[in-house]
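Q: Structure tokens for this one, please.
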Amino acid sequence: MGVLMQAFYWDCPRVDGQEFAWWNFVGTKLDELHKAGFTSLWLPPASKAANIGGMSMGYDVYDYYDLGTHDQKASVKTWFGSEDELRRLIHAAHEKKMTVYADLVLNHNNGADGQEDNPIIQQKRWTRFNPKSNIFTRDWTCFNPSPYQELHDVTFGDMPDLCHINPRVSSGILNHAKWMIEEIGFDGFRYDFVKGFGAWIVRAIHDRQYMRDNAKVNIFGVGECWAGDDFIDSWLDSVNRWAENRVGAFDFPLRYRLKDLCDLPGFSLRTLANGGVLMKDRPFEAVTFVDNHDFRGDDSPPEVVNDKMLAYAYILTHEGYPCVYWKDYFRYGLGEPGEASGIERLVQVHESHAGGGTNILYADNLFYAMERTGTGSQPGLVFALNNSGGVTRQWVKTGFAGKTLKPLTWRAKDSIYNPQALTIKNDGWCVVESPQRGYVVYGE
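A: Here is the predicted structure, written as tokens:
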């Protein structure tokens, strides 16, 4: 399925000194990302935000059709740049055969131009939206509670929540998605806070036909369904039942398991063999990840703190559609271009070798080994993970009988490690080795 790069993090324009220039900054990294093997970019919300109290990350949408062209909400450009700069970034990514996904915020809006009486609750609310694009204007009937009864009561803070069953709202959302794909050039969407609205609106977006440059566009979609495995299963079923264009979901249960792997002393590697995560239960709909912009501490859940490369080694060798976090790759220096121990090498190995099904070869408290069986041009691999304080060796039986597998990428904690090739007996048995608190990926 490729490898996705989340091309932003919280407050990235300010932290990286790229205010109003983020689109151009991401463009300067395309050659490096393409060389590493990344196939897709996920960009932050591109529409003009309310920007209350300063420029924002875009999750407080005001004008869906202003991507940095109108002088409103304290600026012409968004915090990330202008519409022209966004178009150029997307075009440059397409030139490198990379797809680009937009972050769509469909649950809530902010920054209304005026208050209105809501006769249902007999209160004044900020629900009058008259954006300068003059497209997809909204009034009180467009927000819950409205004359159109909405069954979903999950709210996002105190921002007014859109009433999707109002035909004015649903048509506005569908037309906006079509414009983003056919006119702006996006190839799909990440759907923000999907627990706050009916899954049918996502299905409607994906059931629609899209054309760009006289060719059909098959879009990708992934939902931020921040919940447990059962809830995500239910959400995916409600979106994908009878759908031709299936939508995925971020694998939050796996992310929390991987955080425990990295940060929880005494974590048992047996847990990695268990179900209850999308990657194992529905791998073709799982978007796996280690951290994202919502994990940042303070008022948010914390990031993974220790030995984060163990988690990246896991998602970039196993099934699912792995997503790498810009902050980890660039700000924290885990990309390590040209080295055997960084994310770049793992991405390259994912693209060259990580195909086929998964067989778990061994799992106990301190050692875990699995193989990908291979498919097409991807010959498969053997992955060994060690949670002990020293080099560990373990007999396993693989599907690579009679072959010699070389180490492709590896990492050890606080030590220099030089892995050796695996010589596999004709009956498939071999001794797999992995360094202290580290991993090795072997392949042809």
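A few notes: The chain has a mean pLDDT of 96. The longest helix spans residues 167-184.
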